[in-house]
Every structure is written in structure tokens, then in C-alpha cells.
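It would be a great kindness if you could assist me with a short task in structural biology. The matter concerns a single protein, recorded as an amino acid sequence and a row of C-alpha cells. Could you please explain, in whatever detail you think fit, how the C-alpha cells follow from the sequence? Thank you for your consideration; the sequence and its C-alpha cells are set out here:
___
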Amino acid sequence: MKKTRKSLWRFLFKFHRYTGLSVAIIIVMLAVTGIVLNHTDDLKLDSHYVKSEAILDWYGIESSESKIAFTSRNHWVIQTENQIYLESQPILKKPDTLVGVVSTDSFILLGFTNGLILISTEGDVIEQIKKPLTKIAIDSSNTIFIKSKDRILSSNDTLLSWQEITKKTPEWSNPSNPPASLMQGINILSRNNILPYERVLLDIHSGRFFGPYGVLMVDIAGILFILLAVSGCWIWLRHRLRHHRHSKK
């Protein structure tokens, strides 16, 4: 009986030691990623994106195909699946459908199905106006025209007021084919603005980054860590009881 008890304690000591060594790397990984994720807002992990080709390939992320491109006064505005670009500069995230672009010497006006966005020629947002529309145009005097709910409206005071008109409008803004070199750069940029660091850290923390076996590995590590805590408490309690008995003698 005494021999069996000694063998059991010997096994418990060995289990505690080697299991601790086995799960140490995973526990450190969980601790580090957990600490970093606690500071997502401070580190802006949800708005900084992975640029590593290897990681993007690991996730199977391809370049977004450009949907729509418009040009006005040598300014190219291109919409991909989740971004609006002015030339090769990202200016708006997850926009509504772009229906047209017009510009003057001092500003560029983007028309979307849910409204208008006025930007500077450098890409800074100046103003946003909620107004459903399907088309946009501009004439030689910089009067803006939009088609909204079967009505044609015009504004000649920088979008402060709108008047319904019935006269003929200038040619509506229509999609164009941008230069191939610009499109190639946009496709690379769009791929680099899809995967946030927060998503990668969450996947590492859960084990999903390593595929189905990674999740299983983290689950097993969690179970082993619970057993480590139980065996550690058991070993500590045994030592305390033994010390208490010796101090009574």
C-alpha cells in the first residue's frame, strides 16, 4: 500500500513537471497575445493591416478586383471592394456604390448612391451630404447636377442649396478604364488593406491561425493547464500536511 502510494506521488510529480514543460510555449503564446489584444484600441490593431506576403498567402487573400473607376480633370477615383482611392491614395473605407465623379480646380465631388462627398484635390474629406442619387454632372460654370429619384437638381453655390430643373444637363459622369499601371498598384494596395493585425492575433490566440489542428492543440493545452493547476495544488497541499505533521512531533 505504501509502495503504491509512493508510485502514485512519483507519477504525479513527473506528470506535473513534464506537462508543464510541454504546454509552456502555448501558455506563453496565449498570455502574450491576450495582453496585446487587451490594448487593441491603444495599438490600433483593428485599423493597421498586415503587409506580409507570406501571411496574406497563408490566409489565401487575393487582390480585390476593381469595380468602378471615374476620371475628371486628370483625377482618377477608383472603387474596389472595400476602399475608394484617389489615384493610388486610399481616402475612404467601405463606401457605398460610386456613381460618378466631377471636379473643379479646388475640389473633387464624389457621387454615391447614398449621397455626396466633397474632397480636396489632396484627398481630404471636406463635407458629406446625404442625398440619394444615380448620376452626377458638372458644366463649364461649375454648376453641379445630380439625378435623384427621377428629378434633376442643380447647385451653383457649392452644394448649399438645390433647385429642380427641367433643362438639358451636361454629359453625366460615366465609368472609364484607368491606366494598367495605376490598376496594378491599386490591386497591390487593396490586398494590403484587408487583413487587420487584430484578426491575426485573435486567430493565433484561439489556434485557428494554425488550422483545425491548431484549435485542437490549444484545447488540449487548456485541459492540461487545468490538470497542472489541480496537481500543483495537490502537491502543495501534501507538502503542507507533511510539514504540519513533522512540526507536531
Remarks:
- The first helix runs from residue 2 to 37.
- Helices lie at 2-37, 40-43, 53-59, 180-191, 197-206, 212-248.
